[in-house]
Write the C-alpha cells for this entry.
Amino acid sequence: MVHKETGLPLVAPDLELPEAYAYLWVMYFTVSDQVSRIRDGVCGRIPPTEWKAWSELTGVMIKDDYDILVDMDEAYCIAMNELLQERREAAVEAAKKKGK
C-alpha cells in the first residue's frame, strides 16, 4: 500500500512498541490517510480539527492520547520532509546528468 500523494510506502517506522500501544499507530494512520498531507512538496501536520472530527465521528476518545499522536505526527512530518527533499535533490541531479 502506498501514499496517494507521494507514492511512498505506508509503513510505520521500525521500532519496538509494546502491544498495549499498537492502537496508536492504527489511530494515527487511520486519520493520516484521510487528510491531504503534501502541499507544495512539503508534508504538513494533521490539523487539530481533523483529530477532533475523527474522534467525534468514530466515537473513539483520543483526549488522553492526543499529545502522543501530535508528537508522532511531528516525527512523521520531519522524516517525510527529509525524504521528499532527498527525492527533489535526486531529480535535480538526474536532470543535470540527462542534460549533459
About this structure: The chain has a mean pLDDT of 84. Residues 66-99 form the longest helix (34 residues). The longest strand covers residues 38-39.
